[in-house]
Amino acid sequence: MSETASTRATRRTPDRPLHAAPDLLSSLAPLLAAWVPRQRWFAGKGRLITGFSLVSATELLPCTADGGTPGMVQLLVRAQQAAPPTRATVAGDCYQLLLGVHPALPPRLAPAALGRPAGGPLRGRTVYDALLDSRLCGLLLERLRVPGRIGALRFCREPDTELPSGLPARPIAVEQSNSSVVYGDTFILKVFRRIAPGLNPDLELPRALAGAHCPRVPAPVAWFESEAAEEGGEPTTLGVLQPYLPDSADGWQLALHALSVRSDFTGPARALGHATAEVHTALARALPTTALHRPQLAEIAARMHARLEATARAVPLLEPYRPRLRTAFDALAALGHDGRSWAAQRIHGDLHLGQTLRTAGEGRWSLIDFEGEPARPLAERRRLQPALRDVAAMLRSFDYAARSGPAGGDAWSLEWAQRTRDAYCHGYAEAGGLDPHAAPELMRAYETDKAVYEVLYEARHRPDWLAVPMAAVRRLAAGD
Ligand SMILES: Nc1ncnc2c1ncn2[C@@H]1O[C@H](COP(=O)(O)OP(=O)(O)O)[C@@H](O)[C@H]1O
Ligand SMILES: O=P(O)(O)O[C@H]1O[C@H](CO)[C@@H](O[C@H]2O[C@H](CO)[C@@H](O)[C@H](O)[C@H]2O)[C@H](O)[C@H]1O
Question: Please, which domain of life does this record's source organism belong to (predicted)?
């Protein structure tokens, strides 16, 4: 097909970088509108995308060069959507996309394709998910190996670390809140998807723990970020590279396996309690701590109430339990009435079995993914909080395993969950953490808050799983 004068005019000329092409985003928008909502990491499921706006575009490899080689562009785009029932304002979440651009996409990459833009600077080329192309993933590692800036992006490496070149790349099979690529069983790069401006706790906390010589968390070796929006502000973390623990299995798989063969899990759970307490102790040493008094406890309880109300509006199934669940939050607020204070510190923020890895040989636990609950604002995720909040979250995870494993919540599985929960709490207290049994109001409030979060999470991401947190809602509402 011959090129018209108007398409020629919109074609990029060598002196106009891709990010300056006025029609870059409009030409990609139809492709993104079909592809983005299908991605596991897309947080706005169930609400129509009404448009996209471009935050930034950085060409990591030339995208419009002649020849048969792929290009790569990193985009930050805002997806415009109607506000969800849990938020007052119109949302426009920002997502990071790493797109490959190929003049003739090889068939092996066909499943990664978004499509071919009908116009704009990439017209006629195939745009695809770069993180499914090992060659482009290799280029990302190369960028991290040699620190420096490219456009709006800065690639950084811990001083005194060496990164080998040429490690083979493979994306991890399970897509979660973000996308990860493993390099030669040596490193894993997590590319953040939903981007909040500022320092991501998944870089901040593991670096602080490495500084405190805590061996329970793989220490970041390199990362990339975009510049701060305003002078003196923090850069925005976009991806983190850390050592890969090859001979390990995550706690979720291990727990499900134990359930499937009706095996005891109290030993591993107790050891996991130790690991959690060690991480909390190191975080409290490395980063600020505070004491929560009556006003702060009241504020925490008020936020829990607000989340419950918003979630009950979004998921009507929760409504009948709302009044009884509220009593857990009132009891938390009342903890401040007798003048007692509670320690608060930086915590993991989204601790569950899937965030733990256990080595095959010595059965040593590590904790990963310190991002916090991805749906919460960054400032909230970085707040100082009672460490028992993580413990309560992990207790929920044992309950999840018992209810979703092969036996699906039969009496033996539920007893298994109770024994495992006790062993974990015991291990936590044994290794210096505050004994969860000494703070029943705190534990109940945080478990309830987590179950409410899970109701919303499952309603949005995995409606088939909604019954799991709803069972906990019923139990917690009954005051159990
Ligand atoms: N350092 C690591 N070593 C081995 N596997 C890892 C490591 N970090 C993450 N993983 C694997 O990658 C998965 C996703 O990592 P995670 O940090 O939880 O990402 P997400 O934020 O997308 O949930 C984990 O469940 C785990 O299986
Ligand atoms: O790991 P992510 O940061 O993506 O966390 C989100 O997804 C989790 C599910 O993958 C979700 O965890 C919930 O389901 C788990 C089982 O799949 C269970 O072990 C957890 O206890 C339960 O909360 C997590 O809440 C969400 O933030």
Answer: Bacteria
Structure tokens at 7: 């398409």
Helix (H, G, I), strand (E, B) or coil at 356: strand
Q: Would you state the structure tokens that stand for residue 305, as one six-digit string?
A: 């109430």
Q: Is the CB of 41 under 6 A from ligand 2?
A: no
What is the per-residue burial (b if ≥16 Cβ within 10 Å, else e) of 250-261? bbbebbbebbee
* Strands 289-292, 222-226: pairing kind: unpaired
Rg (CA), the chain: 24
Look at the block and give the residue holding tokens 């004994």. Answer: 435
Give 12 Cα–ligand 1 centroid separation in angstroms.
39
In ligand 1, the atom with minimum distance to the C-alpha of 179 is: 22
Query: Cα 279 to chain center, whole Å?
Result: 19
Is-contact 414 400, C-beta < 8 A? no
Q: Which two tokens stand for residue 295?
A: 């006003």
- How far, in Å, from the CA of 201 to the mean position of ligand 1? 15
| 39, 174, 187, 190, best to mutate for ligand 1 pocket (most atoms within 8 Å of CB) | 190
Q: Quick one: tokens of 427? A: 């291990």
In eight-state DSSP terms, residue 385 is: B
Q: Whose CA is nearest to atom 10 of ligand 2?
A: 176
CB of residue 455 inside a 6 A radius of ligand 2: no
Q: How many whole angstroms separate alpha carbon 401 and alpha carbon 258?
A: 10
Q: Which of 41, 357, 358, 364 to mutate to test the pocket of ligand 1 (most atoms within 8 A of CB)?
A: 357
Query: What does each of the 480 residues of the chain score in pLDDT, given as a tens digit?
Result: 333 333 333 344 445 678 778 899 999 999 999 999 999 899 887 788 999 999 999 999 999 877 788 999 999 999 998 776 555 555 589 999 999 999 999 999 999 999 999 999 999 999 999 999 999 999 999 999 999 999 989 999 998 888 998 999 998 877 678 999 999 999 999 999 999 999 999 999 999 999 999 999 999 999 999 987 677 788 999 999 999 999 999 999 999 999 999 999 999 999 999 999 999 999 999 999 999 999 999 999 999 999 999 999 999 999 999 999 999 999 999 998 888 899 999 999 999 999 999 999 899 999 999 999 887 889 999 999 999 999 999 999 999 999 986 778 899 999 999 999 999 999 999 999 999 999 999 999 999 999 999 999 999 888 999 999 999 999 999 987
Q: What is the ipTM of this complex?
A: 0.96
Element (H, E) at 311: helix 294-314
Contact residues for 177 (Cβ-Cβ < 8 A; gap 6+): 40, 41, 193, 194, 371, 374
The sign of the torsion formed by the CA atoms of 271, 274, 276, 278 equals negative
Distance CA 242, CA 210 (A): 11
Q: Say if residues 349 and 124 touch (Cβ distance below 8 Å).
A: no
